[in-house]
Design a protein that fits this description.
Elements: H1 34-58, H2 66-76, H3 79-88, H4 116-127, E1 129-132, H5 138-150, E2 152-158, E3 175-182, E4 193-196, H6 198-201, H7 205-211, H8 214-224, E5 229-230, E6 234-238, E7 260-266, E8 276-280, H9 291-296, H10 305-312, E9 316-319, E10 326-329, E11 335-338, E12 345-353, E13 364-366, H11 371-379, E14 387-389
Parallel strand pairs: 13-14
Antiparallel strand pairs: 1-10, 2-3, 2-4, 4-6, 5-12, 6-12, 7-10, 7-12, 8-9, 8-11
């Protein structure tokens, strides 16, 4: 499931003189439906306030607040997220990281004491994205690769757009076919995307260890200022079994959290021609150069490839990396997953989030819990609240 979201062709909006740009679009209607829409907008604002109180007092996520968080993010160029984060997570700040359990890292033998952590955090603060060079053992990468090579997966093939379609502006990709596949031959794919079942991922010892890896948790804690909330893993193949005219993809920003990092474990080499991650460097922080793009997200969820490259082409970075490397990205910045011209990729993703306030996920049942993840869940129940032992 690539990090792509819908987009509508609607240029940045201008506001009439004397009218506040902070009024929600839901409140700008005409005719007999105006009162209904106004009440609905007030209901969302009320749910947002109630959700803030509930999260502050009891730490319970308020997924119904996510809609308003998204709108405020666009109107304020991300400053609202920073303000909410400082308020709601002020009691969880950690000056010095203490895991709370004796953890072993797959990424670094030095774990939380690895000196490269500060360099990684510095790069994240400046650019919003960084690639950690290959550190996983070859047998670890090979084991995950074989899991994605041989298991039964969900599969999907993209369809074609019409002749009048403008590349890079698509709201969603058309789907021509869905099905299941027993493994994959990467050299002769029969579908565009193959997805490893999450329940199978969560029974894998390596995946469980990565979800509580001390090195990755240390990077996230230093970057976010709080011990992260760990969220669901996903693993999938992107292939070149796609019709023409789908590349380039549009850009977007992620939602569902106030601040976070996405962890991408690259299990195959990626190149400019293969499926890969694309990021607008510096767009994770409010700034003048990308502000016009962020404000357009108030009325839609995507940004066309053309409008992004017209405004900040020098900041667009195609992130390619070898197998075994790890891509860390603050995906509130503008980004996309690009489709293949040729080749394929297998990638494992999961989230390290600074807040659970507007998270829309449901807890995931675990049938088997290894010793490493079990210790982490016991020591940090708030951070692993989206995982639970199956009854």
């Amino acid at each position: 499931m690539p990090w792509e979201a819908p987009d509508v062709q609607n240029p940045g909006r201008t506001w009439p003189r004397g009218e506040s740009s902070l009024i929600l679009p839901e409140m700008k209607t005409v005719g007999g439906s105006r009162l209904t829409e106004y009440r609905e907008a007030l209901r969302k604002v009320g749910a947002f306030g109630t959700g803030m109180w509930r999260y502050w007092r009891r730490g319970e996520p308020a997924p119904e607040s996510n809609h308003l968080v998204q709108k405020l993010y666009a109107y304020t160029d991300g400053r609202s997220n920073d303000l909410l984060f400082r308020i709601l997570e002020s009691r969880r700040k950690e000056a010095d990281l203490r895991l709370g359990w004796d953890g072993t890292s797959l990424v670094s033998e030095a774990g939380i004491l690895d000196p490269s952590i500060e360099d990684v955090v510095r790069a994240l603060r400046e650019d919003g994205v960084v690639v950690v060079p290959p550190r996983l053992k070859k047998e670890t990468v090979q084991s995950l690769y074989e899991l994605g090579l041989s298991c039964t997966m969900g599969a999907m093939t993209y369809g074609s757009f019409g002749a009048d379609h403008i590349p890079g502006t698509q709201t969603t990709l058309p789907v021509a076919e869905t099905g299941t596949s027993q493994g994959i031959d990467p050299s002769q794919p029969r579908y565009s995307v193959y997805t490893v079942p999450r329940e199978q991922l969560l029974e894998n010892r390596i995946v469980q260890c990565l979800l509580c890896d001390p090195y990755l948790l240390a990077v996230a804690t230093r970057y976010l200022g709080v011990f992260p909330v760990v969220t669901k893993p996903d693993m999938w193949w992107d292939t070149d079994f796609v019709p023409g005219g789908l590349r380039p993809r549009p850009f977007h920003t992620d939602s569902g959290c106030l601040r976070w990092l996405k962890v991408g474990v690259n299990l195959t080499d990626t190149t400019f021609e293969s499926p890969h991650f694309v990021y607008v460097k510096g767009s994770h922080n409010p700034n003048r150069s990308t502000r016009p793009l962020t404000k357009r997200l108030a009325s839609r969820m995507n940004l066309s490839d053309k409008e992004v490259t017209e405004i900040c082409s020098e900041k667009v970075s195609h992130i390619t990396a070898p197998a075994g490397s790890i891509t860390l990205a603050d995906t509130r910045g503008i980004h996309k997953g690009e489709l293949a011209m040729r080749g394929h990729r297998l990638v494992l993703y999961f989230g390290l989030e600074g807040s659970a306030f507007n998270n829309i996920d449901k807890p995931i049942p675990l049938n088997q819990v290894g010793s490493e993840l079990g210790k982490a869940m016991s020591a940090r129940p708030f951070s692993y609240q989206f995982f639970r032992v199956a009854s």
